[in-house]
Amino acid sequence: MRIKRKTLQHLGIHTVLILTLIAVAFPIYYAFTMATHTHQDAYAFPPILTPGNQLIPNILEAWKRVDMGVVLTNSLIIAVLVSIGKIVFSILAAFAFTHFKFRGSWFLFPLCMVTQMMPLPIRVIPLYQTMANMGWLNTYRALTIPYLASTTGIILFRQFYMTVPEELADAARVDGATPMQYLRSILIPLSWTNIAALLVIEFVYMWNEYLWPNIVTTASDMRVAQMGLRMLYTSERGAAEWNIIMAGTLVIMLPPLIVLILFRKQFAQGIAMQTTK
Amino acid sequence: MDRFPKHRFLPYGLILPSLTVIVVFLIIPFGQAIYQSFFRVSPFGRQLRYVGWRNFVEMFRSPEYLSSFQNTLIFSVLVIGIGLTIALIIAVLTTQKIRGAGFYQVAFIWTYAMSPIIAGVMWSLIFDPSIGILTHAIATVTGYRINYFTDTVAAFILVTVASVWVMLGYNICFFVAGLQNVPHELKEAAAIDGATPLQTFWVVTFPMLSPTTAFLIFVNTVYAFFQSFGLIDVVTQGGPNRTTEFLIYKIYRDGFGRMQEGQAAAQSVVLFILVAIVGAFQIYTSTRKSVYNR
Amino acid sequence: MHQGKRVMILTFVLVTLCVQGLALAQTTTVEFWHSMTGSRLTVLNNVVEQFNAINPAQQINPVLIGTYEEGLARFMAAYPVNQEPGIVQIYEVGTQSMHDSGMIIPAYQIPERLGENWDFGQYVAPIVRYYSKDGNLWSWPFASSSAMLYYNADHLRQAGLDPNKPPTTWQEMYEMGLQLIEAGVVTHAMSTGWPDWMFETQLAMHDQNFANMGNGREGYPTEVAWPNEFTDDLMEIWAQMAKDNVWIYGGAEYNANGAFNSGEITFLMQSTSSLDGVLNTVGDAFEVRTTFLPRVSDEYPRGNVLIGGNSLYVSNRVTDEELAVIFEFFKFLSDPDIGTYWHKNTGYFPATNAGMQALMNEGWFTQSPNHLTAFLQILSGKSEGTAAAGMRLGPFVQAREWVRDAMEKIARGEDQRAALEYSAQQINQLLADYNEFLD
C-alpha cells in the first residue's frame, strides 16, 4: 500500500519534470524545424513541426549574409582570451587575499568586489570615451581588457583556497619553496575543477556579450557573434526569412553549448563550492 | 592567514593586475559619469555646458523616465519571482530520490548557454503576430490575436517569458547545489518530529537555502537590469510605447541614439545606486548566514 | 631609326610598369557604411562588386552598420575619434543634423574640389529639392523612396469589392475595412510601416507644414505646426479605424510587412523600397497591387508625398585620393544602367532622369505596373512649397520617436488630441534644446 503511493508520487514527479522539460526545450526544437524548411514551408499554416531537408542550404545562406566566419572567429578569440585572463587574474588576487596578511587588504578586498556592483553597462558612455581617447576602438584590446577583473573568479578561488590546509603551505615554506612555486606546483593543480567552472562561466558570458562589443566596434571585421545574429535578425525580419534567421541562430548558439556540456560536471561542482560558504 | 610572512610586497603585485583593470576601466570611468551628469553635451559633442542638477531634476520629472523606472522594477520582480519559483520547484523535484535525477539535472542546465539575444529571437518567433505558433494557439482558443508590436502587455509578457527561460538553467543549477548542501540529518530530524514534507521544506530547507536565494536574487536582478539589453534591442527596441524601454536601454538610447550624453550619465549614476542597494543586501545576507552554515 | 624604336619600346614598357606599379601601390579603399537590410543587402553588394571590378586601384568596402538610426548615431560618435568611414548612408531624418555637423563635404563641392564638373540637373527633381540647401545638393542622391499603399486584390474580390477601386480617402478605407472584416476575410484590414513617416507624409500630401520657420527650411524651427484642424480630421478617422479593428498597429519599421505577406491584412502602407521584398515573398500566393496613399478629403489642398529613403554623405576628412574614388563611385551610381538595376530589384527610385527614361524606353512599367505607382504618385503631386519639399529639424530622430509615440497611443485607443499635444510639447522642448547650442 505504502509502496504503491510512493510509485504514484514518483510518477507524478516524472510527469511534471518531463512536461516542463518539453516546454523548455520547445523553442529550440521549433527553431530547429524552422531552420530546416524552405521559405514557403516556414510560412505554412498550420505550422510544420517536423524537420525538413533545407538545413545546410539555410546555414550556408545565413553564413553568407552576415560573414559568420568573421563573427565566430572574433567571439572565439575574445571568449578564450578573457576566460584565460580572468582565471589568471583571479587566481593571483585570491592567492594574495588568502595566503598573505598585508596592509590595506581590508580596503582592497571590497574594492575588488565592487566590479559586481558596477557592471560594464553602467559605464558604457564614459568607458567608450576612454577607449576612444586611447585609440582602442575596433581592437581586441577594447573587447577584452575591460572585462579582466572578475568578482566571481576572485570569490570562487578565495572560497576554495581558504579550505586548503595551512600545513601544505607550511611544508612548502620549510622546503624552501617561494610563494609562486607553491602556487604553481601545489595550489593550481588542486584548482582544476574551479578553473574549469570559471572557464565555462566566462566563456558563456563572453560569447553572449552584446552591448559593449556593439558600442566599441564599427569595423565589420571586428564584430562578434551576437552582433552577427542581431544583424541577421534585423536584416531579415522585414522579409521574415525565419528559416535563415534560425539557421544562423543554431550555428551561433552551438559553441557555448558545447563548452557547457563538456565541462558540465566541473561547472556543477564549482557552483556547489561557491554556494558553500 | 599569513602563510608567507617574509614576502611583504608580493601580495600587492598579485592583486595589481586586477586592481589596474578596476581602477582604469571602472573607478575612473564611473567618476567621469558622475562628472558628466552635471553637464550637457551639444548635439555634435563640441561643447560642454555646466547645468548643475538640471539633468537629475528633469529626469525625475520626466514621465518617460519614471515609467521606465517603474517598468524595470516590475520586470525584475517578475523575472525573479516567476523564474526563481519555477527553478526552485524543479530543483526540489530533481533532488528527490527518483530514477534519472542526474539526467534531469543535466537536461535543464543548457538554457544557461543561451544568450538573451537567442532567447529573444526564439521567443519572438513563437509570439510572432502573423506566424507565431503561440499566437495561433491563443487565437484559436480565444479568438484574440496577441500582437507584441502593438500590445504593451503582450510585449511585456514576451520579454519576461524569454528572460525567465534563459535564466532557468542557471537558477536550477544553483538551487540544486544549494539543496544538496542541506544536511540530511536536519530533514530527518524534522520528519521524525512529525513534520510533513512541505513543513520540513519551509522550516528547514528553505532557510538553509537563503544564501543561495539571495545570491540568485542578485544575479537575476543584474540580468533584468543589464543583460536583458540584447533581448530588448532585438525584439522590441523599447516599444511599444516605451513599455520595454528599461533603464539600461534608455541610457543607451539617450546616450548614443538620441545624443543626450549628460542626461544618460545622470541615469547611470541613479542606476548604480539601485544596483548597489541590491548588492549590499546580497552581501549582508550571505555573510550573516555563513556564520551558522559552517 | 632602329635605335629610336628601341627607345620607344623601352619607354613604353617603363611607363606601363610605372603606371601598373603605381596602381598596385595606390589601391585606395573607401569604407561605405549603409543600412541596406534584407533583400536590398544583396542588391547593394552586387552594385559595389561591379564597381570594384572596374578598377582594382579604386575599391569600396561596404559595411552594414545597423539600422538607419544606428548609422547616424555611429557616424556622429565615430567622427570625433577618427573612426568614421569615407561614405555614410543617412536616412532623410538625419539631413539637418548632417548639415549642422560640420563633419561632411557638401555633395556639390565634391567635383569642385577635384577640379571636375558635374551636372546636378540630371537628378530627379523632388529628390534634389529634398536634399538641397540654398539651391545646392548637400548629399548624393541614392536610394530615394516614398510611401504607397499595397493591397491584396484577392481579399477585395473575396469580400465582393472591386479590386480596381482601392480606397482613395480614409473614409473609404474605413468603410472597405469594415466590409472586409464583416465578410470574414480578415480580422484587421490595414497596417503600416514607419507610422511616424506616414503621419509626416499625410501632412505633406495635404500641403501642411510639419514645423514653423517654413517647415524648418527658412531657419531653425522653434515649434511644430500641429495639432491643428487637419490633424484632428486625420487622426479622428485613424482613431476610429483603430477602435473598430480596421487599423492594426504594425511596429516601427518593417514588421507590418510580415502580416501583409502572410495574408493577415489587406492594406499595407509602406515604403516603395519594400516592393521587391514583398513581391518575392508573396510569390503566387495572392495578387499584390499598389496604389496612391489615401487622402483625408479634397477640402485640403493637394501637396505631395514626402521623399524618404536615404542619401550619401562624405566625410570632410577624406584625402583627395579617397575623394577621387568616392566621386568615381558616385558617378557609377548615377549611371542609368545601375539606376535601373537598383530600381528593378529594390523598388527605390532611380536617382537620375536618364535612369527614368531608360526604364520607360524598355517598357518596364507595362511589364511591372506596381513599380510605376510611386512615380505617378509623386509626379501627380505639387512640386512647390515647403510642405512638399520636406521638413528640416535638428533633433529629427527624437522628434520622430515622439510622433511614433503619439501614433502608438492613438492605435491603443487613447485620445488623439491629447496624444499629439503631448508629443508636440516634447518636440518643442527638443527644438529649444537644440537651438540653445547653436549660437
Characterise the protein shown here.
The complex is a heterotrimer of chains A (277), B (294) and C (439). With 277 residues, chain A is mostly helical. Chain A is built from 15 helices and no strands. In chain A, helix 4 packs antiparallel against helix 13. With 294 residues, chain B is mainly α. In chain B, strand 1 and strand 2 form a beta hairpin. In chain B, helix 10 packs antiparallel against helix 12. The longest helix of chain B is centred in the C-terminal third of the chain and has 33 residues. Chain B is flat and about 75 Å long. The C terminus of chain B is likely disordered. Helices cover 51% and strands 13% of the residues of chain C. In chain C, strands 1, 2, 3, 4, 7 and 12 form a six-stranded mixed β-sheet that branches. Chain C has a four-stranded mixed β-sheet with strand order 9-10-8-11. In chain C, strand 1, helix 2 and strand 2 form a beta-alpha-beta unit. Chain C is globular. Chain C starts with a helix and ends with a helix. The model of chain C has no long low-confidence stretch (mean pLDDT 90). Classes of the chains: A mainly alpha (277), B mainly alpha (294), C alpha/beta (439). Chains A and C meet through helix 6 and helix 13 of A and strand 2, helix 3, helix 12 and helix 13 of C.
What labels describe this entry?
heterotrimer; A: 277 residues; mainly alpha; MetI-like fold; 15 helices; globular; C: 439 residues; alpha/beta; D-Maltodextrin-Binding Protein, domain 2; 2 domains; six-stranded mixed sheet; four-stranded mixed sheet
Task: Indicate the topology.
The complex is a heterotrimer of chains A (277), B (294) and C (439).
Chain A: H1 2-35, H2 39-42, H3 55-66, H4 68-99, H5 105-113, H6 124-134, H7 140-144, H8 151-163, H9 166-174, H10 179-190, H11 192-207, H12 211-216, H13 225-237, H14 242-262, H15 264-275
Chain B: H1 10-36, E1 39-41, E2 48-50, H2 54-61, H3 63-94, H4 101-107, H5 116-126, H6 133-142, H7 152-180, H8 184-192, H9 197-208, H10 210-235, H11 247-257, H12 261-293
Antiparallel strand pairs in B: 1-2
Chain C: H1 2-25, E1 28-34, H2 39-54, E2 58-64, H3 68-78, E3 87-91, H4 95-101, E4 104-105, H5 109-113, H6 125-131, E5 132-133, E6 136-137, E7 140-145, E8 147-152, H7 153-158, H8 170-182, E9 190-192, H9 195-205, H10 212-216, H11 229-243, H12 255-261, E10 267-271, H13 275-282, E11 288-291, E12 308-315, H14 320-333, H15 336-346, H16 353-361, H17 364-367, H18 373-380, H19 386-389, H20 396-411, H21 416-436
